[in-house]
Amino acid sequence: MRKYVVILAAVAALLTGGLPASAAGGWAVTYLDPVPGALAPGTSYTIGFWVLQHGVHPFEGDLGTTGLTLTDAKGRPTTFTGTPLPEAGHYVTAVSLPKGTYTIEGVQGIFAPYEVGTLTVPGGIEIRPVPPELRDAGATEQDHWGAIRPPGFPAGKGTPAQTSAAPTSAPAAAPSAAQVAAEQESATAVQERVAGQEGGGFPPYTLLLAAVGGALFTLLAVRLARRRREPDPSEPSGRSSGETSEGLSDGGGDGRSGEEGDVVVFNG
């Protein structure tokens, strides 16, 4: 019994280790590039934003889907997908909204969404300050960018980090507003994927670990059931030897007496 408990504990530890970064304590902050001072209803605007792990540096790896989710006063969200720009952690999207007030959340791939602020149409954007506990946790000297950098960050001294390898010919041009706006046709599908990520999607191998854990639970239950069905050696099983002998003896006697009854003996 004890060895099964140890195995199940090990499987539970592996499952915990397989959680995505958002469930394991990783976090990020979304910063917006400067936007127009007045936003008009039904007008397209291109908005740049940065997704920085711990609020200070780009994520080293496949971050996943990024974007901005704007939720109106009735709780209806609309997600605008981000397109990567040459700078590490830098993205752009195009938005167009009717009149109203919206909360802005940064879609941050494997990290949990981040509340950016409030957008009013007509009007502007009110940025929510970075929480002190996040600001203090990530307050380290960084040097990831050059002249193009997140708002409030000093210019770096080295070569700016890139999101992809440098082209051998002419550098790729940043996407135009029309190209970015065309991507909004898939906003609904992106919103569904984001909802799945917020739910804490698990890597495929965690399903295998869960199956192993379930098999171990089943095996343990079967063994316990068998132990309950096994008879106690101290209890008698079947009829006693005396009862068996008596039964055989009675049956045998009846057979012989019957046969002897058919024999007639004549004495000279």
From TrEMBL:
Signal sequence span is 1-23
Keyword annotations for this protein? Membrane, Signal, Transmembrane, Transmembrane helix
Superkingdom of the organism of origin? Bacteria
Q: Where is the composition biased (Basic and acidic residues)?
A: 136-146
Question: Which regions are flagged for Low complexity bias?
Answer: 159-191, 235-248
| Residue segments, region Disordered | 136-194, 227-268
**Which positions, given as ranges, span the membrane?**
202-222
Please give the name of this protein. Answer: Carboxypeptidase regulatory-like domain-containing protein
Q: Which organism is it from?
A: Nonomuraea glycinis
Source organism phylogeny: Bacteria, Bacillati, Actinomycetota, Actinomycetes, Streptosporangiales
